[in-house]
Amino acid sequence: MISIDHLTVEFGAKPLFSDVSFVVNDHDRIALVGKNGAGKSTMLKLLCGIQKPTSGSISVPTDFTIGYLPQVMKIADETTVREEARKAFASTIAMQDRLKKMEKEMAERTDYESDDYNALVERFTEEHERYMLLGGDNYEAEMERTLTGLGFERSDFDRPTKEFSGGWRMRIELAKILLGNPDVLLLDEPTNHLDIESIQWLEQYLQNFQKAVVLVSHDRAFINNVTNRTLEITCGHIEDYKVKYDQYIVLRKERREQQLRAYANQQKEIADTKAFIERFRYQATKAVQVQQRIRQLEKIVPIEVDEVDNKVMHLKFPPCLRSGDYPVICENVRKDYGQHTVFSDVTMTIKRGEKVAFVGKNGEGKSTLVKCIMGEIPFTGKLKVGHNVQIGYFAQNQAQLLDENMTIFETIDSVATGEMRLKINDLLGAFLFGGETSEKKVKVLSGGERSRLAMIRLLLEPVNLLILDEPTNHLDMQSKDVLKEAIKAFDGTAIIVSHDRDFLDGLVSKVYEFGGGHVTEHIGGIYDYLRAHNAETIDEAIRRQTEQKPVEKSSIAASADTGATAKRSNGAQDYEAHKAQQKKIRKAQKAVDDCEKRIAKMESRVKELDMMFNEPENASNVGLITEYTELKRALDKENDYWLQLSEELENLKAS
Hints:
ABC_tran_Xtn, Probable ATP-binding protein YbiT, alpha/beta, Rossmann fold, 655 residues, single chain, repeat, ABC_transporter-like_ATP-bd, coiled coil
């Protein structure tokens, strides 16, 4: 159990937290929520001891272990996967070394009857018992089981970590934390670099985890499936909701409505009191009443209304020069890391103005091909970047490359040139960094804020080929929508590496699937791609593709080639029809849900009235009888309406 008492954290004049107190219990699964920059990541750093509060205390029991997965990872590139995972057993290995030294000392000494020798034997016995309780020499086998469970092949164990993508590095960090078997897990945006398969694995693991979890994530489905308690950071304090995330959303809305009503009533009371004081301030007969009202006014504690982040990021890519007709052409491109082939025979042509998606499991080569296009790594085959192509590149680790000791303004001022230097404040304001915020140091920014700052770099020079590698990591739902609209309005070509199906929906016209060392082209949007595999998710589509036999794969490729013309003409129409149908289904589902909520509310009131009628004094209450009769009539009508809506929804889903 971790106890937080009267915690205050200050960055500059305004405190981030003030007088915060709460407890993390043994089996809690906590979602830590709040707007970008509210202090979620800072709270995790405080809990694990990386950062110290300005005042207050954090009490952690003796021998209590904490596993912390940060938003930004720092993995040594000179180690292998096995060596990195073995770090989880540092204490066990140190204990093993101490036992070997004591064993050697006992074998060399001959003073068997001395007190000193007996003390050595006792120390060895106690240490050996502890060592065996911790698993003894089995730690290597346990490490291999965990790495294999996370998707690593045994042939991967001795590969350098630098050969792996961000998602696989995240799995290495996860393996280290899980092997340590901590008493509490602190996870800061754990799904950012994971593919859908890994997210589902982690979700299942956390559901079965028998200890405490504190989680920060923008993945609503993930935190709702994992957590049972929600802590919201708002207005510099903590609001504790003992419910799942979806229920928290409902309760928070109700709470804010109550706050707004109470705030309005208090403002009216303050206004009336001030009006009374001003009116009778100079009348001797009212002096006592005036003084009473002044004292009342001084005693009023202002009601705070929970802050809602209604600010909107404004993003527009600048006009770009016209590039050649084919910005990227690949012919038989191949990339190997030692004996490991990432992909081979990659042949693709990306036309000017196209928006395309790279999808596939982590480690299948999406980011690797991007680096080949950027000219950052060597490869074999032919890869041509077209005439007059100017590339704007947003990498997965872009936010990590920022200088933490510079301010937001200095970060942009150091790379801005020409007229853009005169527009830095306007640009920062469009990305919610206006005013005093621009003087913040990069090191105090959250992951979402760092990603926004890194995104500004793309706007400093006009480009006509955008390459965005997991651009939505760390961005909240609102910022994702703004980025999506900006890319749709972009005049040039865009390559987007993403696992986010909703983000890609309506944005891309072609999908390149990475899997099994090959890259397959699919004409149409992301839902055309999913329908072609009869799948609901990208992960499911990839799994079905890799499970198919080679003959079936070639036949799919052949049908894709022969049917390309038909898909070009019908794909857009089918896609628009699919979108319109999905919109109707969502609208019908919302109507059913709203109706069910009204029915539940009515049924609850009916039960209350039934209980009230059990009291003798209410048996002949005309008002209650009238309400009960009208409520039952309305409930019957609502049930009929629900049946009608449900039938309409089923018909839409079936069509």
